[in-house]
Amino acid sequence: MVDGFIERLLPQRCRICDDATGGPLLCDACTLELPWNDAACVRCALPMAAPGTCPDCLRRAPRFDTAWAAFRLQPPIQHGVHALKYHADFAQARLLGELMTRRLRARAAALPERLIPVPLHPLRLMRRGYNQAVEIARVIARECAITLDLDGARRTRPTEDQIGQSRAARRRNMRGAFAVRADLAGQHVALVDDVMTTGATFDELARACRAAGAERVEVWAAARTP
Ligand SMILES: [Zn+2]
Ligand SMILES: [Zn+2]
C-alpha cells in the first residue's frame, strides 16, 4: 500500500532505460528502437523488406481483409509477450496495448466498431486463469473507445499445438474451431491476439465472423513471427 502510494508521487520512469519520461511508459528514444513491424505484407503482416503483398497471400488471400502487427517478435517485445502469456505479468499487457494504441490513433483508416479477442478454449482458460489476448484488447478498447466483445466468439474445441506444422496442416487443425454467436451484420470488427504466427487461427475466426455477417474483418496482433 505504502509502496504504491510513494510510487505514484515519483515521476514516471522508462521501463527500459529508467530515464524520467514524465508520462508514458517508455521514453521516446526507447520507443523508437523497438522492433516495429513497419515493412510488412498488407494482408497478413508478414515481415518483409518493403511493404507489399507476400507470395502466400497472392496465392491464397486470407479471409480477413487486412492484418496489422505492431512489432516483430524480437527482444525486448518477445520477452514482454512471454512474461504476459506465461507469468501473468499484466503490466506487459498495458505496455503493449498502449504502444499499439499510439499507432492505431495515428492511422487514417476508420476504427472498427467491435474488438474480439481470440478466445481460448475454456479448459485452457481455466488452467491459465486469464487470456492474454483479452488483457491486451482491454487496454486498446478503453483507450480507443471501441466496444470490447468478450463473449461473442468462443472456441468450440481445443486445438493441438501448431508449432512446426505446415500452413496447410495448421489450417486443417483450426477448421470449425470457433463459434460466433454475436450478430455482426454489417459490422466492422477487429480480432485481437498477442502473437500472429501463420494466421491460421485468425483466418478461421474471420471465417466465423463473416458467417455471422461481419462486413469488414481486421486483425490486430502485438507481434508477428518472421
Ligand atoms: Zn528509455
Ligand atoms: Zn501476406
UniProtKB/TrEMBL annotation:
Q: Write down a Pfam family by its short name.
A: DZR_2
Q: Which domain of life is it from?
A: Bacteria
Domain named Phosphoribosyltransferase: residues: 127-221
Domain Double zinc ribbon span(s) in chain numbering = 6-58
Q: Which PANTHER family match?
A: DNA UTILIZATION PROTEIN YHGH
| Similarity-based family | Belongs to the ComF/GntX family.
Q: What is this protein called?
A: ComF family protein
Task: List the source organism.
Answer: Sinimarinibacterium flocculans
